[in-house]
Amino acid sequence: MTWPATRPGAAVRSSAVGRSLPSEDSAAIVSGALEYVTDRQVDGMLHGAVHRSPHPHARIVDVDTSRAAAEPGVVAVLTASDVPFNRLGSDPHNPPVLAGDVVRQVGEAVALIAAVDFPTARRAAALVDVTYEPLPVVTGADADAPTSLHPGGNVAGTIAFESGDVEAALADSAVVVDVDTTTSAQEHVAIETPGGMAEWDLGKITVWCGSQNPGLHRRFIAQALQLPLDDVRLVSNPVGGAFGSRNDDPAPVYLALLAWSTKRPIHLHLSRTETIIAGPKRHPYRTRVRVGFDRSGSLRAIDSHAVADTGPYVTAGRNVLKTSAELSSGPYATANARFDGTVRYSNNANAGAFRGFGVPQVAFGLETAISAAAAELGLDPVDVRRRNLLRPGGRHSLYGHTVSRSLRALETLDAAAAHPWWHERDAWAAESTPGPWRRGTGIAMAMKGVGMGSGKGDTARARLIVSANGEVNIWAGPNHTGQAIATAYRQVAADTLAIDYDRIHVHVGDSELVPESGATAASRSMYAGGSAVQLVCRKLRAVLDESAVVEGSGVSFDDVAARLVATGRAEYDAEFVLPDVEDIGRIPADSLADYAPHAVYGCSTQVVRLEVNVYTGEVRLHGVVCAVDAGVAVNPGTTVGQAEGGVAQGIGFALFEEYRLDDGVPVTTSLENYLIPTAVDVPPIETILVSGHEETGPFGAKGMSEVVVVPTAPAIAAAIGTATGFWPRQLPMTPERLRAGLAALEAA
Amino acid sequence: MKVNGTPVHGYDPGARLLDVLRDHLGLRGVKEGCGVGECGSCTVLLDGDPVCSCLVFAGQADGRDVVTAEGLGTADDLSPLQRQFVDHQALQCGYCIPGVVVSAAAHLAEADHVSEDSVREALSGNLCRCTGYSKLVAAVLAAADHRDSP
Lengths: 748, 150
Hints:
The structure holds 2 protein chains of 2 kinds. By secondary structure, chain A is an alpha+beta fold. In chain A, strand 10 (204-209), helix 5 (214-225) and strand 11 form a beta-alpha-beta unit. Chain A is globular. By secondary structure, chain B is an alpha+beta fold. Chain B folds into 2 domains: 2-72, Beta-grasp domain (Ubiquitin-like (UB roll), Roll), CATH 3.10.20; 80-148, [2Fe-2S]-binding domain (DNA polymerase, domain 1), CATH 1.10.150. Chain B has 6 helices and 5 strands. Chain B has a 5-stranded mixed beta sheet. In chain B, helix 3 (80-87) packs across helix 6. In chain B, 59% of the residues are buried. At the A-B interface, helix 1 and helix 19 of A face helix 2, helix 3, helix 4, helix 5 and helix 6 of B.
């Protein structure tokens, strides 16, 4: 790009947005040169380790650190009493930093070690002597609990809402389908495990760590250490994956505690096993869904009841349930909808944020019910969905709020259904060769809100400084945990400013420099962060368009930049507050944030083609078609990458990922027995970017990275049902479960 | 042993090759993702064969050639294979990618015929949680095409 001084109102040339530009750190990544937060090292740094509970629920009678502290090379052993404010958050149900009186899950941190090298730290961690008195174990959200994990009982939260009259509508529906589904605790398996480095220097602490929410982690650390917020700096870049696991990960607080206590640099890198045992999971759900249709296939009612297991403490559970409630009616329009949900405590894994955030669980129930209803009605599953879709600008079935005109539910459905795999599905199935393999094709769809929702004051910010040498630096958030979001921000900046791409530099992840912009979560980064970048660039652009700044012929941007600096007009800030819904519908105005409905939703429809071995229950995936609505894709290659990665996680959720415990004791504790998809498990994925435009988003963009996880499992289930006649209700659909289901079908 | 063509000495033969490469030699492109040979993030070439360096004692590499992602090409001078990964946007967080590139390089060096299936098989020991593998496979196939064309 050159440097055109466009006039206000003139069309700005769009040449960066819409291009598949590689991220700036790509060359460093492929050559192994990029230093991640856990790669960081300085001379003289100490190494950390964590002593963790072996019990799912026990009273701590005594903690004796004398043997650990006496180990040569050990510099510090910290326990609960060493933490100035021992809680991660302000709610009494939030987890402690270090367990003091009671442990409530296996893997809960009890003590922290700092030592001169890692082997010493690890050895000392094993020498912390804790005397436990085991307590009764709450093994699940459904179980009759033998004890209360918190003074108020084992209910962490509830949400209930009804529109219309669901019971009456179900009573006079021609067809009512009732499905009872369960979904598993899924582990994120970001390939870089938690950790990083921290330094204490002149009364300030700096922590380099993985974080999807540097502002939140900064507050956790300031609170735990009782430091002023401005004395805590968090740098979260570069980071090896997140998917929700780094939303409220305690490792940054451990790092800060150890550095603050020892006054020395400290390194910590958790093992895979302790990450799996102690880290958050996707909430396991039991969801019962009833849908009622009239004979022609019009949807009369959706009734969804969900129970979620959040583990021992409040982290994201209540908000996960809130999101389940909002998306319990999916992308469908009906006059009668009800959600009744409960999130409960247990001594299982702590469950938190995971890509999709409560939607995959309830959507599996809903889509399974819709597919079953189509079969019972003898109608095409696409036709049934198409005739009941929520329309752009329409009203949400449960809450009655207005949804954005950018909704592309119909277009994603039509795009997926137009694929030959869908309309040639019967012919393909008929070509099955003799033998155990049966062919099937399934379809499912979903929608997911973009941002934290109405009433939350969800805000992203950006800061821009023009340097005297003609460079434009922008500090923006949300930050990058693998999405190449800084590249997308740069593309937005280039087209807003209409200056050379090479002059623009975007920085993310450093709380000292990036103004508070919230979490890399809720499909909000592109939409919210991109909008803030666009706004801050417009401020500079407006100044550039003033003729006084650029007067004179042949003026270069170097000259302009120097003039801006000389005249004190080189620095700009902007914030983007995500718009609330235009009309809140049936939600009481004073409790809008309790329901936090969205105006902007992304949609995805997926078609799965597969074979099932009816003797062994094995599933062989042939391919996935993923139609997704991203509004305008700022970086199409990156957007497709997000879709492909989301589908792969959906495949794992559907077919094999299950974090299992036995009476609160983890069973699947490594990647040897907690399996995620490999390159041979994931089939070719064909992504269709449906054309759309969200008018409140940067250049028409909106978020899409979560919704793509959601339809995969119900589409696979529908394909298995079509292939075999057995319609799975339990995730993951392991060979054992499929074989058992097929055997029951044969016996019936 | 030789690492990326340079003879190295003075390491503990009982240490994991992974730790010698990372801590002794500062080759931090060799990542540890699990420590038990399941994720493939620490993959290096040992006399041309891809191995998980977390499962190899340094002493087992005595007298042998070790190549890491850093040895295939540098950020300023990428190998054709690494260039294909960049051009195909075949990475997201990137933490697994040095190991993936090493496995792919071994496959391209060994295989007479490279196909989508052979590439998926060759990468099946490298877990990637971000990409869904499609772009990784496309990048390796493009590198194979480039290699095979005159």
